[in-house]
Structures are given as structure tokens and as C-alpha cells.
Amino acid sequence: MDERTLCHECGAEMVLDTRPQEISYKGLCTTIMQRGWYCTNCSEVLLNWDEVEGSFEAFARMKAQADNLLLPKEITRIRKKLKLSQRKASAILGGGPHAFQRYESGRDWITRSMANLLRLLDNDPNRLNELLPRSEK
Fold first, then answer.
1. β-strand 5-6 against 45-46: which pairing, if any?
2. Could you tell me which residues are beta bridge partners of residue 29?
3. Do 50 and 78 lie in a common domain?
4. Which pick of 23, 35, 107, 134 has the fewest CB atoms within 10 Å?
């Protein structure tokens, strides 16, 4: 976008601004300040990925709360408490070879079953031994 941007919907000028935007999920609501190009005539808004990151984080917090999931920072904290690399956590707990990399970067949602497993292991890390292959015990 340059100094003067025109709306692709109505042709009016767009302005770079930061405005409140409501985000909702399953009855939960929050308002964030969203930077973007706003049309001066219609309701069109253009955002780039860097500007959307804040709204994604707010949505992720709401989804985690509503669906009883874990946030990326919580997943990382528990994995490190268990002294597992991302690859090792995936191998032992499941989800595929790059699951924890995706969970911890926020690129993929953790499943409720994986969140529950991590919560149990967070409360009793010694139970991880029960999940290790016999060759690693």
C-alpha cells in the first residue's frame, strides 16, 4: 500500500488507521485495536499479515478458553518441564513429527485430547515414563 490507496470495492480513498475491532467466538467477545487500510466510503478494510497477528492472538486466547485448550506458551512450558524436544514430544505423545513445532508456533490448534494429556503430565511429570518405549525406560 502506498500513501494513496483506493478501495477495490467502491473506488473511494482508503486511509491507514487504527480502529477498534470486536472479535467473538462461542459467546466470548473482546475488542482489539486493529491497524489497517479503511475505506472512507464503504466498510471495506485491507489488512496485511503483520497487522492481523494481534487479532489472531486474541482469537487464539478466546478459542483456548472456550474449548478448554492450551495456548502455545503453555504447551512450550509443559514440554520443557518434561525435558522433551519438540520432536521427542511428538514421537512420544503423538501428533506427527512436527506437531509440537506447529502447536508452539500457533500454526495449528492443539487437540483437546492432547491438551488434556499435557495437563495430566504437567501435574505429574513422572507419568511420562509410562508412555516411553520399553527401550528408553
1. unpaired
2. 24
3. no
4. 134
Same domain, 76 and 125: yes
Are the CB atoms for 39 and 10 separated by under 8 Å? yes
Q: What is the pTM of this model?
A: 0.71
Q: What 3-state class would DSSP assign to 22?
A: strand
pLDDT at 124 over 60: yes
**What is the CATH classification number for the domain harbouring 88?**
1.10.260.40
How many separate domains does the chain show?
Answer: 2
Give the whole-angstrom CA distance, residue 99 versus residue 94.
Answer: 8
Do 50 and 77 lie in a common domain?
A: no
Task: Report the C-alpha gap between 95 and 111 in whole angstroms.
Answer: 9
Asked, for residue 94, whether it belongs to a domain, the answer is: yes
Grid coordinates belonging to 128: 511420562
Q: Give yes or no: residues 32 and 82 share one domain.
A: no
Least confident of 49-53, 112-116, 119-123, 124-128: 49-53
Over residues 31-58, the mean pLDDT reads 86
What is the rounded average pLDDT for all residues in the chain?
A: 90
Q: How far is CA 122 from CA 30, 33, 78, 79, 112, in A?
A: 29, 34, 6, 9, 15
